[in-house]
Amino acid sequence: MHRIYRITLDDALPMLAAARAKAEEIGVRQTICVCDDGGHVLALHRMPGARLTGVEISMAKAFTAAGHERATHKFNEPPNGPALPGNEAFGISHMYPGKFAIFVGGFPIEYDGQIVGAVGVSGGNGEQDKAVGAAALEAFAKHVAELGLGG
């Protein structure tokens, strides 16, 4: 028997708030997407002035991180990033056109050893997207602790 955990909108909202606060702190207009373990959007926030393209990009980053259970930037980290030319997954982004992102900004959400969702961040450079994603993940961990769930 396998136990499956699901995140809800109530779990996603603290993540969006923390991610937005971090983006404001570092002065970047971001779009933040939180999805469930199936890559389905639970919550999305496009900050005022954030690029229109960030909506689809953040959704693709979240989808990819949830579906492949890894941060999206790990696909292209030299020397063994699987999506780099000559490596085993080169071209993988063509499998789900418009939905599969292999660059910085997608981060899986883990609870009790399971991937329960992901957050996708778009609008900054790689370091900025990582910082905003980290804030979202920290907020999730705090939220879970406050609920007394451990994990």
TrEMBL record:
Gene3D superfamilies: Haem-degrading domain. It comes from the Bacteria. Coiled coil: none annotated. This is Uncharacterized conserved protein GlcG, DUF336 family. It comes from Micromonospora rhizosphaerae.
